[in-house]
Write a structure and sequence with these properties.
Layout lengths: L10 E2 L3 E4 L5 H6 L5 H6 L11 H9 L11 E6 L4 E8 L1
Antiparallel strand pairs: 1-2, 2-3, 3-4
């Protein structure tokens, strides 16, 4: 059963916030160049391909359709200003 984003809490720590996507996250994600080490860590091989705006937007859109009985995806916002660091964490 899909659940509305508002149901998930915002989890705050001293240096990190786990939250649902907000306006500006697509642009923030696109500003981070693909990293070969991250690509391998998540099961990729070879050089990572650049992300398109459509791919990133679709990824964030999936957060609004997640089934909380099986997964919880959060954006990781890190640093003093809590800028976007990564796209998701599945718990």
């Amino acid at each position: 059963m899909p659940v509305d984003n508002a149901v998930l809490p915002v989890l705050r720590g001293r240096r990190v916030v786990l939250r649902q996507p907000i306006a500006g996250d697509v642009a923030a994600r696109l500003s981070v160049s693909p990293d070969a080490e991250d690509h391998r860590m998540y099961g990729g091989s070879g050089e990572p391909l650049p992300l398109s705006r459509r791919e990133v937007a679709a990824s964030f859109d999936a957060y609004s359709r997640q089934n909380l009985a099986h997964t919880r995806m959060f954006v990781i916002a890190a640093g003093l200003s809590h800028n976007l660091l990564s796209t998701s964490v599945k718990s």
